[in-house]
Amino acid sequence: MNGWRTPPNLLSMLRIVASPWLGWELSRGNFRIALPVLFLVGISDGLDGYLARRFNWKSELGEKLDPVADKVLMATLYLCFAWRGMLSWGLTGLVLGRDAMILCFAATALAAGRARRFPPSVWGKLSTALQLLLAGACVLRAGWPDLPPQLVFTGLVWAVVTATAWSGVHYLWTAVRLLRAERH
Prior knowledge:
This protein is mostly helical.
């Protein structure tokens, strides 16, 4: 099967295409429209990886497209949430800063010919999953103000802060280790 036409790659491309539309709906306050779309986009994030592994539909394009799709989606969501006052600019900066750091390292390593692969860590996957869960909680809360309860929402915010910061430190440590190994 042609690399770009595999179902996992199509799902990643769908996430990229859906992100601006989802951002538009969020910016207009159409939370009841945005919630099911966000749910489907979130499911597609897990489904593309499962399909790639299950049916051996892995590709070099998919290895790059999936994290780019995640970063486009997260940037869109978190910028909309901060702009609307649903999340702090500090949390948005943490999420976007970690993603920018990862992209900069990957681009630098690729340009220098040092590392061809920079696979996601379990901490990165956990961070992304929690960020998506918080995004869903934000949209749910905006459309239905009593959900989720404040204590749950606050706990989820702190879980995202912790997981995002830790995964950023872990990616940085991994990057330094990879670059040192390449020198020897």
